[in-house]
Amino acid sequence: MRIADEIIQPMVEAFRPEMLFVSAGFDSHWSDPLTLLGLSSVGFFGISQRLVELAKEHCGGKIVFVLEGGYDPMNVANGVEAVFEALAGTGSGFDAGDASPHAEPDVESRLDEVRRWHGF
Questions:
Q1: Once rounded to an integer, what is the mean pLDDT over residues 19-45?
Q2: CB 69 within 8 A of CB 25
Q3: Would the pLDDT of 67 be above 80?
Q4: pTM here?
Q5: What's the rounded Cα separation, in Å, for the pair 12 and 97?
Q6: pLDDT at 93
Q7: Of 42, 61, 93, 120, which has the maximum CB count within 10 A?
């Protein structure tokens, strides 16, 4: 969520798009067999919800999610459900029961680096 708030939001505010297009890949799920990155389905919901909010604030609500990847059928199904819940505004209690067993990584240095690259 820090990435959504501290990187994506300032980018949207600076760029001022007319519509958001989201490549909705679920291979960043913590248990994906190919990538083993860190998101859970609740994480996908939170990011999707924030993107929907940004679209409402800056694009008149115009947003498109395009299914793009993920190599575990259950993760893809849960991720798609998370996006639909965010779009419909009905998922405030969304939980697919797949919380990551891993500790949150320290992303501070990476956030600083991306902010520096983009001048904010």
A1: 92
A2: yes
A3: yes
A4: 0.90
A5: 31
A6: 82
A7: 42
How far apart, in whole angstroms, are the C-alpha atoms of residue 32 and residue 22?
Answer: 20
String of b and e for 20-39 (b: at least 16 CB within 10 Å)? bebebbbbbbbebeebeeeb
User: Identity (one letter) of the amino acid at 8?
Assistant: I
Place of tokens 């939980």: 95
Q: Identify the helix (H) or strand (E) that includes residue 15.
A: helix 9-15
Hey, where are the domains in the chain? Answer: 2-92
Farthest-apart Cα atoms in the chain, separation: 39
What type of residue is 17? Answer: P
Six token digits for residue 56: 């409402």
* Beta-carbon count within 10 A of 11 CB: 13
| Cβ(12)–Cβ(58) below 8 Å | yes
Secondary-structure breakdown of the chain: helix, strand, coil percentages, each rounded to the nearest 5: 50, 10, 40
**Contact indicator for 12, 22 with CB cutoff of 8 Å:** no
In whole angstroms, give the CA distance from residue 50 to residue 86.
8
